[in-house]
Each structure stands twice: as C-alpha cells, then as structure tokens.
Amino acid sequence: MTAPSRAQALEFTSGSLTIDRPWSRPTIGKAPNSAAYMKITNKGSAPDTLTGVKSEVAEHVQLHTVMKEGEVMRMRPVKGGIAVPPNASLELKPGGYHIMLMGLTKKLAPGDMFDLTLQFQGQGEVPIKVKVEKMGGMGAGAMKSGAMKDGHSGHGAHVSGGRSQ
Ligand SMILES: [Cu+2]
C-alpha cells in the first residue's frame, strides 16, 4: 500500500539532523524579499549549530531573528549561528528565527520549489528544497497593510507573528 499524499510533506535527513517542512512565503506584488521557515531536529547526542545558508533564489541569504527594541519588533541578522541542542528541535517560524531571502532572483509562486543549502558546523552542508506555500490567514493582513513596502526593514508579517505569540 502506498500513501501518495505523504510524499508531499517535505522532509530531509542528513546524519542526525532532520529538516521538516521547509516553506517560504510567496512573492507579494513586487516585493524583492521573502523568508523561509522550517523545523530542524537534532536526534544525535552532540549539539550542532546552523551557521549559514545559501541559495541562488536570492542575492543575499541570511539567518535572521526578531528582537524587541523598546516597543518595536525588529529583525536582525544572527551572529554566530543558531544552536541546535542534542535531542531538541529548532523551529524557524514567523516572528522568530527565519531565513531571509533578499533580492529574489525570481518570483515565488505558491507550489514552486527552490534549492537551498543549510550550513552546519558539525554536519556540514545540507541541501534541501523549499516549497513556496500559499499565504494563509497568519500574517496576510499585516503584509497587505503595506508594512512590507520597503522590503527588508518592514517585515510586517514577522512583527505581527511575534506579537501574537
Ligand atoms: Cu528577516
């Protein structure tokens, strides 16, 4: 017996690391940027660190986090990587850690897939594919509000995601 629908759930394994459901936002209008998210699980007994990421889908690809500065949530590049402790999961999600895609080289439409390579201190390079998903309810309102107008610094969707948690 086969279950074709299960094949649609993207999962990648490299050593003791599993990458679950990498997804990104579709391009909104002429927005030059997008962000990718996923869950990284470390089933090993040693810690690892996500130190970088690269992809041809954008001119600049960076690890970002969202931090509170006074009353405002702002995103910042992550310095020194993101730790993935043994027997734990690291979730990249709206409002928190994310992979920032700046200067997209193509439009991202729902259903598209693109290649991305995660760079880990221990495991080395882990190539994965990211699926562009339809905008759901979460964040859609914030993006429509024009918060994404200036692309990088706006990040309306991240802001609203963070606040709602
Ligand atoms: Cu960002």
Describe this structure in words.
The chain is built from two helices and eleven strands. It is globular. It starts with 10 loop residues before the first strand and ends with a helix. The chain has a single domain, classed as PCu(A)C copper chaperone (Immunoglobulin-like, Sandwich). Helix 1 packs across helix 2. The protein has 165 residues and is mainly beta. Strands 1, 2, 3, 4, 5, 6, 7, 8, 9, 10 and 11 form an eleven-stranded mixed sheet that branches. The structure holds copper (II) ion (CU). Copper (II) ion binds next to strand 9.
Outline:
This protein has helices at 140-147, 156-163, and strands at 11-14, 17-24, 33-42, 48-54, 58-69, 72-77, 82-84, 88-92, 98-104, 113-120, 124-132.
Shape: globular
Query: How far is the first residue's CA from the last residue's CA?
Result: 40 Å
Uncertain spans: 2-7, 137-165
Mean pLDDT: 83
What proportion of the residues form beta strands (DSSP E)? Answer: over 45%
Quaternary class: single chain
**Series of H and E elements:** EEEEEEEEEEEHH
CATH top level label: Mainly Beta
Main sheet specs? 11 strands, mixed
CATH topology: Immunoglobulin-like
The ligands found in this model are: copper (II) ion
How many individual β-strands? Answer: 11
Radius of gyration: 16 Å
Q: Which percent range fits the helix content?
A: under 10%
CATH architecture classification: Sandwich
The domain count comes to: 1
- Helix- and strand-based class? mainly beta
Helices, by number, come to: 2
